[in-house]
Amino acid sequence: MTQTAKSHSDQVTLTQFIIEQQRGLPDASGTFTLLLNNIVIACKQISHRVNRGALIGVLGSAGSENVQGEVQKKLDIITNDIMVRALDWGGHLGGMASEEIDDPIKIPKQYPKGKYLVLFDPLDGSSNIDINLTVGTIFSVLRCREGVEPETEDFLRKGTEQVCAGFVLYGPSTMLVLTTGNGVNGFTLDQDIGEFILTHRNMRIPEETSEFAINMSNQRFWEPPVKRYIDECIAGQEGPRGKNFNMRWVASLVADVYRILNRGGVFLYPFDLRDPERPGKLRLMYEANPMAFIIEQAGGLCSTGAERVLDIKPHDIHQRVPLIFGSKNEVERLIDYYQQPTNN
Ligand code: AFP
């Protein structure tokens, strides 16, 4: 996929793209466009804060812990507040849930309630923020039963029920990657005009790859199917795979997903034997489900090793899951290793 500079008149903005998609849906009322617009405004504000960094004093630790027991960065709190304030007033949401907050966030009484729920990780990869590496915001949109004040159970829905998922990448360029179940498209923020412009149409993950992403420091805790897979990759040309593999690990899910969407690869944050109470590191509702929707829409696969991520019935809004995704042929191979009894 090559991108060439286009004149302004040829450019498709995100708003135009969404409105044109909506025209094809007879029941569309425009509410979803408004919701997405507010998410985008929040992400532009976050992009600005992340970009200004030390100049505006937003780097460093906040000295508190979130519901996951992780030390919060100042920007974890700032970006969470930006998302909440951008989304609570619009009238299109029944409620929202954030990776940073214990319970779902209610819409203040003075505002009307709407037909969607939003779940988000306001700043994924925030442990990378102080070293100026790519971070991002991930979001997932579900429908809300109209007329109900949503409780936690109303958010506990399978990933297959998502109507939209996306992430914004705050990297060398600020980019939005989006799916509404009709392929995956990438938009680059033109900072001069403040608009996201369609630059990566119909992103597809190559089925073949020779690149893997995993945190190798956890090797001693892995289950046999993952050990076998990685050993075979590392054995390279002389090993059973008969080819050399490369490894990448940014430790920012958004950046690793973006690389895989562009040039293929396989990502693993598998179940490991450190703590049986913690079946993985990444969060189902805020990270795994939205990324699984995007990956599948781009022709890849996403699994825990034992089951398709999008088919998991959630039991806890902050639950963690093992995550294996990327180029179809490699994920299929891993699923096959999980199914072979000698590997388990
Ligand atoms: P932080 O938001 O705490 O930096 O965690 C990032 C993350 O959830 C995900 O974006 C990475 O893929 C993964 O954790 C990295 O985990 P390790 O630090 O264990 O490599």
From TrEMBL:
Any GO BP: fructose metabolic process
In the UniProt record, the signal sequence range is: none
So what does this thing catalyse? Answer: beta-D-fructose 1,6-bisphosphate + H2O = beta-D-fructose 6-phosphate + phosphate
Query: What does the entry list as the binding residues for Mg(2+) 1?
Result: E99, D121, L123
Q: Does the keyword Iron-sulfur apply?
A: no
Residue span(s) of domain Fructose-1-6-bisphosphatase class I N-terminal = 13-200
Select a single GO molecular function from the record's annotations and give it.
Answer: magnesium ion binding
- Cofactors (names): Mg(2+)
Domain Fructose-1-6-bisphosphatase class 1 C-terminal, by residue range, is 205-338
In short, the EC number is: 3.1.3.11
Q: Does the keyword Acetylation apply?
A: no
Principal location class: cytoplasm
* Subcellular location(s) per record: Cytoplasm
Q: Tell me where on the tree of life, at the top rank, the source sits.
A: Bacteria
Family classification: Belongs to the FBPase class 1 family.
The record, for HAMAP family, names: FBPase_class1
Q: Describe its partners and assembly state.
A: Homotetramer.
What's the protein name? Fructose-1,6-bisphosphatase class 1
Q: What high-level taxonomic lineage is stated for the organism?
A: Bacteria, Pseudomonadati, Pseudomonadota, Gammaproteobacteria, Methylococcales
